Amino acid sequence: MTDGLKHAYDLTFDCVQCGYCLPACPTYETMESETHSPRGRINLVKMVAEGKASVEDMEEPIEKCLGCMACTSVCPTNVQYGSILENAKEVLDESKQTGAVESFLFDDFIPSRRWMDRLGVATWLFQKSGADRIADRLPWKMPLHLEAFAGILPEMPSPAKRNERATRYMRKRPAVKKVGFFTGCIMDSVFFGSNESTIELLLRSGAEVVLPENQTCCGALHAHSGKKEKAIELAKQNIAAYEEEQFDYIVENAGGCGAQMIDYPSLFEEGTEWHERAVAFSSRVKDISEVLVEMDGLAFSKEVDQTVTYQPSCHMTYVQKVVEPPLELLRKVPGLQLEELERPGFCCGSAGVYNLVQHEDSMDVLDVKMEDVCRTGADQVVTSNPGCLLQMKLGIKREGMESEAVHLVDLLMEADPESRY
Ligand code: SF4
Ligand code: SF4
Questions:
Q1: Architecture of domain 300-419
Q2: Are 217 and 234 in contact (CB under 8 A)?
Q3: CB of 15 closer than 6 A to ligand 2?
Q4: What tens digit of pLDDT does each residue of 199-234 get?
């Protein structure tokens, strides 16, 4: 038995089989089977470790887990499901031959700022050519259901606009805080405009903002795909990049990235130098909404006459445990009517690349979420994570709604906040 499987096996004994987690699990609700519930998955990992089931037997149930962590919020014995899941994924990853395309994606493409810039530029060209408007009517299918996303991407900035962005933003007046901004991969390539809004909100709140040049991908996709070694390598690079200056906060605007970076200490053995450095790093990681609330430097002046609902990211809710700050900010926007979801903690089905690699199952989960969204009658669906944002845009398109999906920072910019400092 590998160390990872042994660790997961030990953790499975905390599960007392009570089943309280079942109603919280989106895949249990949509797939209606014990195998696709948290308890079923935990039992399967235990059976694999005991030799009563094969590694292949656990592949489908584990791959179809969203990793949303809703189950951990209701578990009375605090079962470390996230750790069980990641170790199970590592076992699955080791049992398979990694193909050249997968190696390129995880080792070279995702962690490279250059490739992410190229993705942004390629999408800009795609939009300029008008191909995005007809992609879902083409007679052939794009890989990974990408045609479904073609018409819903935000307008990309031109390459010249991308190149204009600075790495340091100073205020004319003295800064109240110094912030290291984590730009992310998808946020910076697809939602570049939201990153610009984030920088602007931080400046108006009274912060000096630095974008460390050596930052890289947070490693969430790697960790959630069983590629722990690469996740550790990326964590080390980020920790070192943000040690180059003394920051009060390391700010991100993507729930999934924030959750991964807060969890960096778990990648290293306690008592080691890297563990200590990871603890120092993660203690300063904050979601943009937390920092805006803490700094309290914005005075919203313009009315936004809209009804909105807020779709929280699962990792922000269950890992970062940041729930109230986005709602608090929305309540401060004059004219805005906030209609909360009945089940905000139910995953939207995005879950990293789940909506690409498990597309049909993801759409089943999305359909449940959209019932709740439609009920609110919202003009705008606000969220704080690129995956949720794309998924909400897709849900709105599938439902034929008139609404829009926006990142929280872009909605806050609509209210044209003035600086109090
Ligand atoms: S992480 Fe989410 S999908 Fe996976 S078992 Fe837990 S609740 Fe279900
Ligand atoms: S709630 Fe916790 S203890 Fe109960 S079945 Fe689910 S994982 Fe096991």
A1: 3-Layer(aba) Sandwich (3.40)
A2: yes
A3: yes
A4: 999 999 999 999 999 999 999 989 988 899 999 999
Q: Is the pLDDT of residue 132 over 70?
A: no
Contact 122 CB / ligand 2 (< 6 Å): no
CA–CA distance, 319 with 321 (Å, rounded to integer): 5
pLDDT digits (tens, 9 = 90+) for 23-68: 999 999 999 999 999 999 999 999 999 999 999 999 999 999 999 9
- Residue 44 Cα to ligand 1 midpoint, Å, equals 14
φ, ψ dihedrals at 136, nearest 5°: -85, 5
Q: What is residue 28's predicted lDDT score, i.e. its pLDDT?
A: 98
349 lines ligand 1 (CB under 6 A): no
Q: Which CATH architecture is the domain 3-95 placed in?
A: Orthogonal Bundle (1.10)
* Tokens linked to 254: 């993507």
d(CA 211, CA 252): 11
Q: Using the mean position of ligand 2's atoms as its centre, give its distance from the Cα of residue 77 in Å.
A: 7
Say if ligand 2 is within 6 A of residue 13 CB: no
Tokens 């990309």, residue located? 156
| Largest distance between two CA atoms of the chain | 66
Q: What is the pLDDT of residues 86-130, one digit of tens each?
A: 999 999 988 877 666 666 777 777 777 777 777 777 777 777 777
Domain with CATH 1.10.1060.10 in the chain: 3-95
